[in-house]
Design a protein that fits this description.
This protein is 49% helix and 12% strand. It is globular. The relative contact order is 0.11.
């Protein structure tokens, strides 16, 4: 299949960065933005209001029409908005057009993964997922970044990777869609925990322990829901977990820091989207369905829901019974 025209839906920081990466790879790119103010900002100043100071490639066409023809679509909207945008896309999708979801989360209420939502709402499309250790500004600037791009059809996965790939942006293709989705969703919750450790200045040893034990939770959850171990230990699992748990650039990590410093849950995100806050209760509900033990994620969900204070969550984790690793 030939992938020359790529439509990026979502003009936030990540959408802008991916549009830039696709243009850098030699593709013809259109960038769709729902928000009127940001769309005008993109059209007139050639920069996203969510990625200030970075000018996008002049060849990228900013549009407001969802029906713009494309060989592949990158769906770069929040996980909880995937359903509404996929429904809008359905009428204009031609048979087997790849829709690559670039959000990291699980839908609240339905417990559906993002590619499942695409399959349900746009049945003509071929769902795929892109995830991995990547900050938007790094990708936009052309700094070396490696991610995982998964589709159940191995040929489509490989073609998408070649269409988006360049010397700086390196997508590794896979068929383990579920594993990539689980890594991206779970690591956001664990990054909030890492932010709490950093915000309370519990030390590098505590941070390393939290990441390691958190990864054990991610692995248990992944196995229960059919993920391949090599995916969970790869870029979209362990790689993304290490990045988001180690850097204040992560919105989820920053949320955890704010909570640790006593800011209320309602304002701790400072107006920025932290997907982990939406994913935590869903992840916990799904873990209980499969009898998967996830004490760190459970503690974070309780803090976000106001059932535990940060101090109580930390104490609860530190006083768990000693056990074999």
């Amino acid at each position: 299949m030939s992938i020359e025209r790529i439509a990026v839906l979502g003009g936030g920081a990540w959408g802008t960065a991916l549009a830039e990466a696709a243009a850098r790879a030699g593709r013809k790119v259109t960038l769709w933005e729902f928000d009127t103010a940001n769309a005008e900002h993109l059209q007139k100043k050639r920069e996203s209001g969510f990625l200030p100071g970075f000018r996008i490639n002049d060849a990228i066409e900013v549009v407001r029409d969802l029906s713009t023809p494309a060989d592949a679509i990158l769906l770069v909207v929040p996980a909880q908005a995937t359903r509404s945008v996929a429904k809008q896309l359905a009428a204009s999708i031609t048979t087997k057009t790849p829709i690559v979801v670039c959000a990291k989360g699980i839908e609240r209420g339905t417990h559906e993964f993002v590619t499942e939502i695409v399959r349900e709402c746009a049945p003509k499309a071929t769902p795929a997922i892109l995830s991995g250790p990547s900050f938007a500004i790094d990708v936009a600037r052309g700094l070396p970044t490696a991610v995982t791009l998964a589709c159940e059809d191995p040929v489509v996965a490989e073609n998408l990777a070649h269409a988006l790939g360049s010397s700086a942006f390196r997508p590794y293709h896979s068929t383990d869609v579920r594993g990539v989705e689980i890594g991206g969703a779970a690591k956001n919750v664990l990054a909030i925990a890492a932010g709490i450790v950093a915000g309370r200045e519990l030390g590098a040893s505590a941070q390393a322990a939290m990441i390691t034990r958190g990864f054990a939770e991610l692995m248990r959850f992944g196995r229960a829901y059919g993920a391949k171990p090599e995916t969970l230990t790869g870029l979209s699992g362990l790689g993304d977990l290490v990045l988001t748990c180690s850097s204040p650039q992560s919105r989820n990590h920053s949320l955890g820091v704010a909570l640790a410093k006593g800011e209320p849950v309602a304002t701790a995100s400072h107006g920025k989207l932290a997907e982990g806050a939406f994913t935590a209760p869903v992840l916990l509900e799904m873990a209980r369905e499969k009898n998967v033990e996830m004490p760190i994620c459970e503690a974070i969900a309780a803090v976000l829901d106001g059932k535990l204070s940060v101090d109580q969550a930390i104490e609860g984790l530190l006083t768990r019974p000693f056990r074999a690793e």
